[in-house]
C-alpha cells in the first residue's frame, strides 16, 4: 500500500536532455584539440594523423562506456541511485570483545595494571572518583541495545536465569517453551526479556548464543531484525542477520543470466506496480530494474510500472520504453480506519482503470500487482500455480480466481489473480464501487470484497507472502524443526524493505537454497501445530 504524502503530483512529460558543456567550456575544449593537433604534426617522435585519429576514436569509445547523465525530470534522483556494486554480499561481521572486565569493574586509571577491555556490551568509560581523576570502569555501551547478565552478579537478571537453568528447567520444563537444560544462558535470558522483563530485570542479551528461542519462538519481528540495517550486537540480531546468512551468495547478474537462458514457461505473468514520484519507491523500483529482480525478473513475461508522472526506470537510457505508464490524478492519501492505514481505494480504482486501458494485461494468464517495497520471486509463484495441488489441480471456474495470501484476508503487498477474474472485475467494477466494497478505504479490502461480490473464487495460499510487521500474525522465520531467518522460508514474496541493500540481503538468502517441491499452496492458517506459528 502507498504511504500518505503531503503533495499531489501533476502529469509531466519532458524530452530528456544531456548534460552539455557551456560555450566557454566548448571553446576551451576546441583550443585544446587544436594545440593537440599541432603537437601531433610536428616535432621529433610525432604521431601520425592516422594514429591520432585512432586514439581519439578509442577515447570516444571509452566515453560512451561511461554512464550517461540526464538532467530531465524523468531521470531525477538517478545520481543518488545505489549501485549493484554496493550490494551486501557477505555476512555482517561479528562484533565482540576478548575483554574480561565485567559490569562496573575497573578498566583503567593510575596504577591499574589489569585488563583494560570490557566484555561484549560494555565500554570502558571515564568515571573520576575522589583521589583518582583518571579512574575508568566498564559501563553499558550506548551503541549496544543489549547487555549480558551471565557472570554479572550485580544484575537481578543473573539470579533469575541461574535459578531457571539450575532448578526451573528440571522441575517445570513445560514453562520454558521448548528450552532444555542444554540451552545457553543467553537463550534463557532472551526468554525472560521477552516474557518477564520487569519481573526478571533482564535486558536483551548480547551475542553469541544459541538461536532456538529467537527463531523458533519469537521470529525476527522487529524492524532491525527483519531488515538487518544496524548491528545492535544483540543475540536476536546475531540469529536473524549473521549466523545463518550465506558467506558467499550468487550474484544477481549470474542469476539473471541463468534465467535469461530458460525457455518461457506457462502460465504467463503480467507483473505490475505503482510508484509515488520523488519517494523512496522510485529508488526501490529502479534498483530492482537494474538488478533484474522482482517484477523485472525474466520469469515475468511482461512488466509495467504506473505513476502519475513520467519516470524513467532506466538511469542509463533516454528510451521512453522504460518510462512509467502515466495515470491522471493525485496519489495523495489519508490515514484512517481501525489500524490507521492508508485509505487508498480511490487511488487504486484509478490504477486498475489505467491497467485495463493499457490493454497489455489481456495478453497474459495471470496479473501480479506488487508493492515497490516487496521482494517478489516470480519463479516460486509459477511453481505454485503449476503444482497441481488444491485449486490448481482442478478446472478453473468461469468467474476466475484470486489468491488469498493471508488468513485474515488478502493483503496488498502482492495481489495475484487470473485473467478471468480481471474480466469479471471489468464487468462488475461499477457494482463494487457503488456497493459495500466501495465503502472500504483500504484497496486490498475493497478488491477482495469486490471479488467476493462478483463470485470470483478465493484460493488460500498463505505461503505467497511473509510479512515482517506482524500484519498477518505469522511469525517471521522458517518452520520448525530447522528454524531459520525469514528469508530462507519457501515464500513467493517478502515485505517490507525500505531500501535496496536490505532487500538484496533478503534476496541473497532466498536464492541460496532451492524450494522445488515446497510451493504447494498452504491452506491452513499459521499455528504451533503446523509449524507456521501464529505470532
Structure description:
This protein has three domains: 50 residues, no CATH class; 87 residues, no CATH class; 259 residues, Alpha-Beta Complex (Spore Coat Polysaccharide Biosynthesis Protein SpsA, Chain A), CATH 3.90.550. The protein is built from 15 helices and 15 strands. The strands form five sheets. Strands 6-5-4-9-12 form a five-stranded mixed sheet. Helix 3 crosses helix 4 and helix 13 crosses helix 14. The longest helix has 19 residues. It starts with 22 loop residues before the first helix and ends in a 25-residue tail after the last helix. The N terminus is likely disordered.
Number of helices: 15
CATH architecture of the largest domain: Alpha-Beta Complex
Total domain modules:
3
Q: Overall mean pLDDT score? A: 83
Rg from C-alpha positions? 29 Å
- Sketch the major β-sheet: 5 strands, mixed
Q: What is the strand content?
A: 5-15%
Structural class: alpha/beta
Distance between the terminal alpha carbons, to the nearest Å?
22 Å
Low-confidence stretches: 1-47, 59-65
Proportion in helices = 25-40%
CATH class of the largest domain: Alpha Beta
Q: Secondary-structure element sequence?
A: HHEEEHHHHHHHEHEEEEHEEHEEHHEEEH
Which descriptor suits the 3D outline?
globular
Number of strands: 15
CATH topology annotation of the largest domain: Spore Coat Polysaccharide Biosynthesis Protein SpsA, Chain A
Query: Order of strands side by side in the largest beta sheet?
Result: 6-5-4-9-12
Amino acid at each position: 500500500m502507498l504511504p500518505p504524502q503531503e503533495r499531489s503530483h501533476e502529469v509531466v512529460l519532458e524530452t530528456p536532455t544531456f548534460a552539455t558543456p557551456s560555450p566557454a567550456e566548448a571553446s576551451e575544449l576546441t583550443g585544446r584539440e587544436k594545440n593537440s593537433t599541432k603537437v601531433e604534426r610536428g616535432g621529433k617522435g610525432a604521431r601520425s594523423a592516422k594514429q591520432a585519429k585512432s586514439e581519439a576514436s578509442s577515447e570516444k569509445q571509452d566515453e560512451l562506456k561511461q554512464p550517461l547523465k540526464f538532467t530531465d525530470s524523468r531521470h531525477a534522483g538517478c545520481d543518488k541511485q545505489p549501485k549493484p556494486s554496493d550490494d551486501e554480499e557477505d555476512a555482517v561481521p561479528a562484533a565482540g570483545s576478548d575483554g574480561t572486565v565485567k559490569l562496573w569493574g575497573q578498566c583503567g586509571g593510575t596504577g591499574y595494571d589489569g585488563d583494560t577491555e570490557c566484555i561484549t556490551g560494555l565500554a570502558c568509560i571515564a568515571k573520576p572518583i575522589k583521589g583518582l581523576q583518571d579512574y575508568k570502569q566498564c559501563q553499558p555501551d550506548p551503541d549496544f541495545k543489549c547487555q549480558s547478565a551471565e557472570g554479572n552478579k550485580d544484575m537481578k537478571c543473573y539470579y533469575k536465569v541461574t535459578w531457571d537453568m539450575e532448578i526451573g528447567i528440571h522441575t517445570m520444563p513445560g514453562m520454558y517453551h521448548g528450552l532444555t537444560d542444554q540451552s545457553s544462558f543467553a537463550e534463557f535470558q532472551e526468554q525472560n526479556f521477552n516474557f518477564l522483563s520487569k519481573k526478571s530485570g533482564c535486558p536483551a542479551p548480547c551475542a553469541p548464543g544459541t538461536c532456538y528461542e529467537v527463531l523458533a519462538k519469537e521470529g525476527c519481528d522487529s524492524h532491525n531484525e527483519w531488515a538487518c540495517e544496524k548491528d545492535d550486537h544483540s543475540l536476536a540480531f546475531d540469529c536473524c542477520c549473521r549466523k545463518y546468512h550465506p558467506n558467499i551468495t550468487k550474484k544477481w547478474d549470474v542469476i539473471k543470466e541463468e534465467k535469461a537462458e530458460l525457455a518461457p514457461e506457462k502460465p504467463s505473468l503480467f507483473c505490475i506496480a505503482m510508484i509515488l514520484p520523488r519517494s523512496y519507491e522510485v529508488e526501490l523500483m529502479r534498483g530492482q530494474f537494474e538488478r533484474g529482480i522482482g517484477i523485472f525478473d525474466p520469469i515475468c513475461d511482461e512488466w509495467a510500472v504506473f505513476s502519475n508522472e513520467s519516470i524513467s526506470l532506466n538511469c542509463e537510457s533516454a528510451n521512453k520504453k522504460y518510462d512509467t505508464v502515466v495515470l491522471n490524478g493525485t496519489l495523495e492519501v489519508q490515514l484512517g480506519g481501525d489500524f490507521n492505514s492508508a485509505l487508498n481505494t480511490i487511488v487504486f480504482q484509478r490504477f486498475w482503470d489505467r491497467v485495463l486501458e493499457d490493454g497489455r494485461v489481456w495478453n497474459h494468464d495471470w496479473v501480479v500487482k506488487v508493492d515497490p517495497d516487496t521482494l517478489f520471486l516470480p519463479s516460486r509463484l509459477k511453481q505454485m500455480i503449476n503444482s497441481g495441488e488444491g485449486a490448481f489441480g482442478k478446472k478453473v471456474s468461469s468467474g476466475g480466481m484470486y489468491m488469498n495470501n493471508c488468513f485474515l484476508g488478502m493483503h496488498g503487498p502482492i495481489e495475484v489473480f487470473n485473467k478471468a477474474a480481471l474480466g469479471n472485475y471489468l464487468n462488475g467494477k461499477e457494482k463494487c464501487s457503488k456497493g459495500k466494497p466501495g465503502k472500504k478505504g483500504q484497496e486490498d479490502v475493497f478488491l477482495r470484497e469486490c471479488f467476493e461480490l462478483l463470485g470470483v473464487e478465493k484460493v488460500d495460499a498463505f505461503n505467497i507472502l511473509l510479512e515482517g510487521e506482524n500484519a498477518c500474525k505469522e511469525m517471521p522465520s522458517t518452520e520448525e524443526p530447522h528454524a531459520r531467518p525469514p528469508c530462507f522460508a519457501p515464500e513467493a514474496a517478502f515485505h517490507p524493505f525500505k531500501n535496496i541493500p536490505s532487500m538484496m540481503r533478503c534476496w541473497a538468502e532466498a536464492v541460496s537454497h532451492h524450494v522445488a517441491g515446497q510451493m504447494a499452496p498452504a491452506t491452513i492458517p499459521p499455528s504451533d501445530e503446523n509449524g507456521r506459528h501464529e505470532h
